[in-house]
Amino acid sequence: MTDLARRSALALALAAGLAGSAHAAVPADRPWMDRSLSPDRRAELIVAAMTDDEKFRMIRADFGQKNDKAPHSPESLEGAGFVPSIPRLGLAALNETDAGLGVTRPGNDGLGAISLPAGLATAASFDPAVAHAGGRMIGGEARGKGYGVLLAGGVNLVRDPRNGRNFEYAGEDPVLAGTMAGAAVRGVQEQKVVATVKHFAINDLESGRNTLSADIDPVALRESDLLAFQLAIAKGDPGSVMSSYNKVNGTYAGEHDWLLNQVLKQEWGFKGWVMSDWGGVHSGAKAALAGLDQESAGEVFDKEVFFDKPLREAYAAGQFPKTRLDDMVKRIMRSLFAHGVIDQPMKPTKVPYEADRIVARDALEAGAVLLRNQDALLPLARKGQSVVVIGGRADKGVLAGGGSSAVSDVAGDPVPGLEPKAWPGPVKYHASAPLTFMRKLGGKVSFDEGTDPAAAAKAAANADVAVVFVTKWAAESFDTPNLALPDGQDALVEAVAKANPKTIVVLETNGPVAMPWLDHVGAVMQAWYPGAGGGEAIARLLYGVSAPSGRLPLTWPKDESQLPRTTIAGAGLYSKEKPADNVDYNIEGADVGYRWFEKTKREPLFAFGYGLTYTSFAYSEFSVDKDASGHPVAHVTVKNTGKVAGADVPQIYVTAPGASTRRLAGWSKVSLKPGASQRVDIPLEPLALARYDDKAKRWQVAAGSYSVKLARSATDVATETSLTLPESFPTAKAP
């Protein structure tokens, strides 16, 4: 026997011995701790061992933070939710925390956290690897701080750019949103933390979110918002789904049998649990029988704890069966077993905050979108060019969105005391000042606060280039009534641009804003809410250390008149106006965003998928065929024809036989050095080619000829071809 063979045999014997020891170490009275069993079997065993009281304890999570409505447990880590330990069963306490951009509560180290840039910035990267890396980062911080559930995975579509919560989501296209959210969820759960895809479903406005009914044809819903969820669940395998506040066609989402039981659990085969949003439960047995598995923080946010006394009474009266109670608990336990939360108990670990800040920085570099760059004004020169930075508190940090996803930066708040201080505030900034990093990279860089347009204009006139930072805060629980910038910032930009035509505007916003000064400035960069590494990322992009490569994950309208609904009833922070009882999404149906603009023949200010960079790319040898499994695949050679390295995003749009609008079916992000080229294969998402057949309850790709377009954006088509497909019936698949 060779040395290698002996070492291999020894390793196999050791592994077998360890496995045997692990199996032998399973207590006889706790067979569910046997890791060799499937998560389903382990869940069955522990549920069978539970008392009814223990089961009822598992189906409601208390509010984790100290409050005057319930006693506080020392096991709670002050997070969003908390389920106490059950020592008899060997179950540790389960702590939950917000949210999709980072850990919002201090956790067991008592510190802040690192925030990713806005979800729209990650979506704008058009790179699932960026979403995956961000998910791993925030999942690792959650585990390091002691949290077993991270309320991450926002996938509601951007139907209206004024929605206050758009920054948490992943754009207007269901294939893009589902793919990016799925990658993020997968990253979170690789850290042995359960992720929660939310908010199920069509929670696409915040005004009146607790009472409004989102009204839409079920087929249109299937082909838009639900498709995003279907893909995110298939690609990410989340342990939990969070139901939304709103009603769907007249029924609360948390009491919606069709949504929760028929579609999510039966048709899609979701095996995890459905938790409520905080304050989203309105009944006991009705909600539980409709598919809701866990009430979140009902003692603080709901009228009563519906999953305690009311549900127990229904149980005792035979109106709520034991089989359903057991199913609710089994779903929770299955996810905790499947994703390693129970097998790897939470232990305090040192969180690598500075390394995580680099992850956040890189995410913004990949997702910032260069919207305008006249006469190659950007990148800025590293030497011999004077620059004045104006406004946006760019000397202090970068703006964050508000509400439950707002992360307190581990470096502290550089701009404390901003209004509103009450919910959904306080307004927060991340301590990553663009000015600081610009001074490290550039030559002469000065600063003006931008509070006086005349003074700012004078400063701009005395510099070679002016960089104006403008901001617009948005948050959960309210929508903005219009697309205008607040606080006179339009006048500031106009004054600066008049004084110096070499003016660059950096936007820190929730999404599209009106830009009446657009034709008067040299360059515009959308930096979204930039995150904890945002200041450095912006500086590196402005000075060409890296090249912008983001593409818009939403359509940028010229004004509100181009939207399906020109006004939002009840919009505005602390608005006294009554919100709508019903929102008619049948206006656009499944034709969301760029498809609405194509259908109604409207020209946006900037198209979905649009974005500039510092180099140029050429396409050649475009073709479409089928792989060995019969799935369509596009092929194109991409060449960097410019003088600097950069990344391109060739996009594939497909128009089905007889359809009036195209759909994004695939894309690829390609990084190339100057002069380099690469042959790229782009698999097309089968569900983007299909329509939902409501009678047959399945997706159907119709037989016929499909128009396949290679494009730089939804409106900039480079070339096209056709592909003939037979009838088929696709399903959502994991990557």
**In terms of structural class, how would the helical and strand content be classed?**
alpha/beta
Largest sheet: 6 strands, mixed
How many individual β-strands? 31
Task: Provide the gyration radius in Å.
Answer: 26 Å
Query: What gap, in angstroms, lies between the N and C termini?
Result: 42 Å
- Determine the number of helices (DSSP H or I, runs of at least 4 residues): 20
Instruction: Tell the overall outline.
Output: globular
Strand line-up across the major sheet? 2-3-4-5-7-10
pLDDT under 50 segments (min length 5)? 1-24
Task: Report the β-strand fraction as a percent range.
Answer: 15-25%
Q: Whole-number average pLDDT?
A: 95
Tell me roughly what share of residues is in helical segments: 25-40%
Describe the structure in your own words.
With 735 residues, the protein is of the alpha/beta class. The chain has a 6-stranded mixed beta sheet. The chain has a 6-stranded mixed beta sheet with strand order 12-19-18-17-13-16, with helices on both faces. Strands 9-8-6-20 form a 4-stranded mixed beta sheet, with no helix packed on it. α6 (174-189) runs parallel beside α8 (225-236) and α16 runs parallel beside α17. The chain is globular, with a radius of gyration of 26 Å. The two termini are 42 Å apart. Mean pLDDT is 95; it is low at 1-24.
Quick structural gist:
The protein is of the alpha/beta class and 735 residues long.
Topology:
Elements: H1 3-24, H2 39-49, H3 52-58, E1 60-61, E2 81-83, E3 94-97, H4 119-124, H5 128-144, E4 149-150, H6 174-189, E5 194-200, E6 213-215, H7 218-222, H8 225-236, E7 240-243, E8 247-248, E9 251-252, H9 257-267, E10 273-275, H10 285-290, E11 295-296, H11 298-301, H12 309-316, H13 322-338, H14 353-367, E12 369-373, E13 387-390, E14 398-399, E15 429-430, H15 434-441, E16 445-448, H16 453-461, E17 465-471, H17 489-499, E18 503-508, E19 523-526, H18 534-542, E20 582-584, H19 594-599, E21 617-626, E22 632-640, E23 646-648, E24 651-655, E25 663-667, E26 670-672, E27 677-683, H20 686-689, E28 691-693, E29 698-700, E30 704-711, E31 717-725
